[in-house]
Amino acid sequence: FQEIKYQCAQFKKSDGFVTTVGGSKENLKKNRYKDILPYDQTRVILSLLVEEGETDYINANFVKGPDNERCYITTQGPLSQTVVDFWRMIWEYRVKVIIMGCREFEMAKKKCECYWASHRETLEYGPFTVTNVKEEEVNEETVIRMLSVTFCDILRSGRGESRVVYQFQYTAWPDHGIPDSCDCILQFIELMHEYQGRDKTPFCIHCSAGCGRTGVICAVDYVRQLLLTSPGFAPSASDNSLHCVGD
């Protein structure tokens, strides 16, 4: 662990990787934590505009996998003012599976804005209508929600289009801690791939800050894929996201 931590610290000092866009005055309010910002070089850019005056910024990075430059989108838990941006990102990059590694509230603090509807209910987030079609507790630590998401493109056609997005929530991972068992995490990751199928669109992974628990899920899945496909490997997920391995 210390070696990985050292490599991450050295990488932060590397020339060329900056966080200028996330730290700009107009985008500061879109960051949950002021010291956790996406790299300009790997940040997710939003080109889908759903309202006048929107920017292309969201606190999110692309992280490469063994055979895909955009295998993962790592992001913070949405804020109340960034939920529409979150759904813009999910829609634009055709995300099929969202992985949530935290609870909405932890230790009496809000860690993530609720961006989904309760079971069999519908909520609207700007031009996005989200219906919770099905909700299932796979085990005591994992909830899977089947969400029907409809986007009405007001600025262009005015017509609506619907897609199914699956949200996986892992509920037993304490912030700044570790799960009691690795079995449910491993099952969780296998289920991610089962629902993703052969689709090459990115997984969207978030916790509260989008680094510690998110980074671990990326790393475990990255190693899983390498063990299945490659005899030898050198992990490089931290090259794409600052703080990918939390302290």
UniProtKB/TrEMBL annotation:
GO cellular component, one term: nucleus
Record field: transmembrane: none
InterPro entries in the record: Prot-tyrosine_phosphatase-like, PTN12/18/22, PTP_cat, Tyr_Pase_AS, Tyr_Pase_cat, Tyr_Pase_dom
Top EC class, one word: hydrolase
Principal location: cytoplasm
Domain Tyrosine specific protein phosphatases: 186-227
Keyword set, alphabetical order: Cytoplasm, Hydrolase, Phosphoprotein, Protein phosphatase
Entry-linked Gene3D superfamilies: Protein tyrosine phosphatase superfamily
Pfam family, one: Y_phosphatase
UniProt cross-references to PROSITE patterns, sorted A to Z: TYR_PHOSPHATASE_1, TYR_PHOSPHATASE_2, TYR_PHOSPHATASE_PTP
SUPFAM superfamilies per UniProt: (Phosphotyrosine protein) phosphatases II (SSF52799)
EC number(s) recorded for this UniProt protein: 3.1.3.48
Residues in Tyrosine-protein phosphatase domain copies: 1-227
Cellular localisation: Cytoplasm
Similarity remark: Belongs to the protein-tyrosine phosphatase family. Non-receptor class 4 subfamily.
Name of this protein: protein-tyrosine-phosphatase
